[in-house]
Amino acid sequence: MVHFFSLSSGPLPRLYIGTPIADMLAHSPLLPLIVDYVDDNRDVSAEDGEGILLALLRCHRVRRVRLRTPVPKPQKSIMVMDEEYPVLEYLILVPTEDSAALILPERLQAPHLRHLVLEGFAIPIGPRLLTTAVDLVMLVIVAPYPSTYFEPNILLQWLSFMPQLEKLLITILFSVPDHDVEMQHMHTPIMTQVALPDLRWFVFRGVSAYIEAVVRRITAPRLEILGIRFFKQLTFSVPCLLQFMNTIQNFRFNSAKFVFARDDVHEEVHPREELEMHVFQIHVDCWHLDWQVSSMAQIFNMLSQIFSAVEHLALEHEVYSPSSEEHNEVDRTELRKLLRSFKTVNNLHVDDALVKELARSLLPEDGELPPELLLELQEVAYSGNDDTGDAFTSFIDARQSAGRPVTLIRLE
Fold this sequence. Notes:
By secondary structure, the chain is an alpha/beta fold. The chain contains twelve helices and 20 strands.
């Protein structure tokens, strides 16, 4: 369905597919237009495509554009926008064709743009659209192909022109080796610090070296939501992420949960245990439980000071099959490293599928408990049958002898 709206004080006239768009545009009052064409399931007809072009050519009237559909000759539709759109506030361009990258017009600019979503576009260096959008409050860029890639310093340059930005989402859907990102950063001029005082929401997907290069140069003291998704990697190093999170005001957590799934592992942190909405979430795309634990242990070992106030910790495992791959043994040194990142936890909840792995990691060695591991722990809650909790017997006895008793609770 395609709608062209003329904004007025009365009801908004609508134009559906099949309406003579050229006649409507020629005879309608010179009021702002909304071009909204969203349909993932059908191709745009040639007639509708021409209607879209005719509407976009009215650059002085277009206030909003949302195109998410298989548009015929998409580059032609985009290139008609190679000029200034003085009243444009919303621009959402998401072609659904899996084709080569589209090219963003160099001269396209919209000085009053507020919301911008681009997917599958090769963006020229110094694009007027991104360097003149000083009123922008939301920026979403999805790079699905190598030809749409932009280096971290390029992104930082764009962000430096967006002091009012409130929401930022950057997604790079292909793997870029950390070494390549680091070399690019070393051979480009160092950006000065980019202040984003109004940024509330930041989501990133890509490799760790990329976000390290970005958060090293930005400050967002009022950030409320931070979400990160990494591609599968063997090693992680996120010291700049730690520094960035330390500058965020009121970024304090009380509850954390790890979910070990079939194809990824993710962690989410909440200000309080009873709140469902998380304020920080991190995903790692990888499989096998040992790899997932190792990845999270590396990341949270570096971020541990951020989670000094976490009191409630949950470990969940989404089991999809009884195969040995789903239950491969975890290196207990890695699991201990992960648990040591949460020094003040007093309540630990663990799924029955992880009870044996956790209990094995907590077992005393030669009668001695692992040093500095869950010293504040007071309660372990587990799901499973009555016998499942027997795995914790040695740990419970050792804690009792050490004068740090722990209560074991089975959840129905």
